[in-house]
Prior knowledge:
Blueprint: E1 2-7, H1 8-12, E2 17-18, H2 21-26, E3 29-30, H3 34-45, E4 51-56, E5 63-66, E6 75-78, E7 82-83, E8 87-92
Antiparallel strand pairs: 1-4, 2-7, 3-6, 4-8, 5-6
Amino acid sequence: MIYHWLPAHDWDGAAEQVVAPSLALEGFIHCSFLHQVERTATSVDKGREDLVLLVIDETDLPLAVEDCYELGEEYPHIYGPIPISAVTAVMPFPPSDDGSFQLPDGLAT
Length: 109
């Protein structure tokens, strides 16, 4: 499984697929492995209160695991839209009081 967070209104408005802005800008949709979610979400979207976390079955998706920005860490990237059928769960993803993100109940390791 891989993970992608986005504004709840973008998920609510998705019909058959999720198309993140990064697909048009960079050619892929940014995702994370479970161990990367908290740190990356906090770094990118600290304090943002309108997010949901998608749990995605990456089987049959155009996926590459790569370090595009020379960060010393590889992340999963989906090179196309995310079909709704690949999303196995959608979870509220609010920040903690300090603005950081914690994995939702049921995902915490």
